[in-house]
């Protein structure tokens, strides 16, 4: 195996988020080395930086927003260069947080809000209308990138209450590590971001995680391992070695006895650099009010491995493309399934991971939004996948 890889020295970019953990663990626990790979991990400052470095060859692979990979492959928001993925970094991990001031205003409209995720969008609608009547400026909500699950989950949540996202709310872009500072400096009123930056706002006393991404779409996709299509074609054995290493790292992360060690690795300044308490809560998945009187545990706040969390479902890609079309980012006449199949190398993932003796689904697609409880397909256990308020994807 070690003699067949085409390229052993790799530069891989990541953004300091807890779902970059498989890269960090694969490096620190020797899973890359086991595959004959000499990896340098490059901590990047923004998603646009990751995208551009990957597209122009400064990076061999990258921890990427799944929608950004799909958009770049279609030449939306950047030059057009085909990017592909054959690995998901896991499911969930996002939340929507608001400043303490906005949270206090929402609590006046809907008490015990932390305990009622189904009431959060309605409370936000009431606040939006109240601010209109008072002549106040629209709420400023940040996402990490225009082509991101954060953007689409935020829109989905707001739209569920009848909020006109394009006119009632101002959506801004702020890189993940900067959202807490932006909230503290009153540059934004809230944001949708991945962990640990929701927990960190609570830890610093400047913001409140209001609703988790899991509450908006149970077990939604998030980041993927992105590579250039041309690179994947030229380096299939290297690509497979990367996937094997990350799969083993994700499995290692999922084991409870390794949790403390994972957290220690992630707190290092060259990786995430957030305080231990913030990163601990990113795994514990607790949402709470500023005074700690309301505490709600989200059972799968982040899901790094179980329930096929690393499987690159083409049905996930189809949903993402459809959201891009719905908000005017992508031509509605484009074939979402064709785009998904071009960009998501699900068969490659299956061939690679099945060689490790792992049983995987036979299909590249699954029905999204119709399972309120864990279910099975092809004899494989899968997680629940309902949308906010139980709405199905129809």
Protein model, in words:
Keywords: Cell inner membrane, Cell membrane, Membrane, Transport. Pfam families: NMT1_2. This is ABC transporter substrate-binding protein. Helix 1 (21-28) packs across helix 13 (236-253) and helix 4 (66-73) crosses helix 16. With 394 residues, the protein is α/β, with parallel strands linked by helices. It has helices at 21-28, 31-34, 47-55, 66-73, 100-109, 120-134, 149-159, 165-168, 179-184, 197-204, 213-216, 229-234, 236-253, 259-267, 276-284, 314-326, 336-343, 346-354, and strands spanning 9-14, 38-43, 61-65, 83-88, 91-92, 94-99, 139-143, 169-173, 190-194, 207-212, 223-228, 286-288, 295-297, 302-303, 375-377, 380-382. The longest helix has 18 residues, at 236-253. It has 2 domains: 9-90 and 221-272 and 302-381, Periplasmic binding protein-like II (D-Maltodextrin-Binding Protein, domain 2); 94-219 and 274-297, 3-Layer(aba) Sandwich (D-Maltodextrin-Binding Protein, domain 2). It has a 5-stranded mixed β-sheet, sandwiched between helices. 40% of the residues lie in helices and 18% in strands.
How do the helices and strands line up, and which of them pair or pack?
Layout lengths: L8 E6 L6 H8 L2 H4 L3 E6 L3 H9 L5 E5 H8 L9 E6 L2 E2 L1 E6 H10 L10 H15 L4 E5 L5 H11 L5 H4 E5 L5 H6 L5 E5 L2 H8 L2 E6 H4 L6 E6 H6 L1 H18 L5 H9 L8 H9 L1 E3 L6 E3 L4 E2 L10 H13 L9 H8 L2 H9 L20 E3 L2 E3 L12
Parallel strand pairs: 1-2, 1-3, 7-8, 7-9
Antiparallel strand pairs: 3-11, 4-11, 5-14, 6-9, 6-10, 12-13, 15-16
Helix pairs in contact: 1-13, 4-16, 5-6, 10-15, 13-18, 16-17
